[in-house]
C-alpha cells in the first residue's frame, strides 16, 4: 500500500516549527504569516481554527492542505515529511487524504451536480463506471439523490454546500478541511450543514474547520486560536458530540 494513500492511526498531521514568511520583490519581509507553529492533530479529532483577520488562519489551512509550502519547519502528513514528496506524490496525498470544503462552494456551473462530484475522481484516473458509482453514493450520503442531474444554479445555497461536501467525500479522505463552510448560508441552513459535518465526524473523519463563530467552535472537540501568526491558545473540550442540537445561539 502506498504510504500517501491511507492514514489508519496516530497523527493525521503534525507541524514542527512551521513558519511562513512572505517577501517583497526586493527581498525584504512583507509579513510573517506564521511563526514557529507546533501542532499535532490526531486521527478523528474535530478541530476549530480561530483568529482575527491576518492571524494566519488561511496560511495554516493552506499548509495543512498541501496548497502552500512553509518557509521553515517540518510538516508530517500521515507520518511522512511533505517536503520529501515529489509533485506526483504530493498531488496524490492531497487528492486522496484530504477533502476540501469552501465557503464559496466552488462548483462548476456548466456541469451537473453529479459531474461536479465526479471531478476529483477524474483527475485520479478512476474509470467512468467507478466515478459514476462513487459520486452517486456520495450524493446520496448528503441527501441529494434526487438532485443529481441539476446544475448548481438550480439548487439552494444549502444544497450547493451539500454537493460540495459530497465532492469532498467522494475520494474517501481521512481529513476534511472546511473553510467557513456556513459563511454564505442563512442560520437555519447553516445549522443543517453543521449537523452534517458533525455526523461525518461521528463516522470517523477528522475535521479541521476555520470559523470566526464562537458558537460553532464551542461544539468542536478542540479549539486552536491564532494571533499574529502564533498559537495563542489550544484548548481541548470535554464534551459529548451532539452536533448542533440545542445550539440556541445559532438562532439568535
Short description:
The chain has 252 residues and is of the alpha/beta class. The protein has helices at 57-64, 87-97, 113-123, 128-141, 157-169, 187-202, 214-217; strands at residues 11-23, 29-42, 46-50, 72-77, 80-81, 98-102, 175-179, 206-210, 222-227, 230-236.
Could you please describe the fold and organization of this structure?
The chain is an alpha/beta fold and about 250 residues long. It has seven helices and ten strands. About 30% of the residues lie in helices and about 25% in strands. It starts with 10 loop residues before the first strand and ends in a 16-residue tail after the last strand. A six-stranded mixed β-sheet has the order 6-7-8-3-9-10, sandwiched between helices. A four-stranded antiparallel β-sheet has the order 2-1-4-5, with helices on one face. The protein has a single domain (about 45-70, about 85-250), classed as 3-Layer(aba) Sandwich (Rossmann fold), CATH 3.40.50.300. Helix 4 packs across helix 5.
Amino acid at each position: 500500500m502506498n504510504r500517501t494513500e491511507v492514514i489508519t492511526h496516530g497523527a493525521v498531521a503534525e507541524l514542527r516549527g512551521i513558519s511562513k514568511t512572505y517577501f517583497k520583490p526586493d527581498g525584504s519581509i512583507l509579513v510573517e504569516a506564521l511563526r514557529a507553529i507546533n501542532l499535532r492533530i490526531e486521527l478523528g479529532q474535530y478541530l476549530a481554527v480561530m483568529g482575527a483577520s491576518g492571524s494566519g488562519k488561511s496560511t495554516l489551512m493552506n499548509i495543512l492542505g498541501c496548497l502552500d509550502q512553509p518557509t521553515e519547519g517540518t510538516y508530517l502528513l500521515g507520518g511522512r515529511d511533505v517536503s520529501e514528496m515529489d509533485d506526483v506524490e504530493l498531488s496524490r496525498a492531497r487528492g486522496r487524504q484530504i477533502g476540501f470544503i469552501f465557503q464559496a462552494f466552488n462548483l462548476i456551473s456548466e456541469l451537473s451536480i453529479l459531474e461536479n462530484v465526479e471531478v476529483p475522481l477524474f483527475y485520479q484516473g478512476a474509470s467512468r463506471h467507478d466515478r459514476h458509482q462513487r459520486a452517486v453514493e456520495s450524493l446520496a450520503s448528503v441527501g441529494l439523490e434526487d438532485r443529481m442531474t441539476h446544475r448548481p444554479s438550480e439548487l439552494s445555497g444549502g444544497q450547493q454546500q451539500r454537493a460540495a461536501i459530497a465532492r469532498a467525500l467522494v475520494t474517501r479522505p481521512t481529513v476534511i478541511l472546511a473553510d467557513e463552510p456556513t459563511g454564505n448560508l442563512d442560520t437555519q441552513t447553516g445549522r443543517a450543514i453543521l449537523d452534517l459535518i458533525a455526523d461525518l465526524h461521528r463516522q470517523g473523519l477528522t475535521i479541521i474547520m476555520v470559523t470566526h463563530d464562537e458558537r460553532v467552535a464551542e461544539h468542536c472537540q478542540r479549539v486552536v486560536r491564532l494571533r499574529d501568526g502564533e498559537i495563542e491558545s489550544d484548548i481541548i473540550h470535554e464534551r459529548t458530540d451532539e452536533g448542533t442540537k440545542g445550539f440556541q445561539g445559532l438562532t439568535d
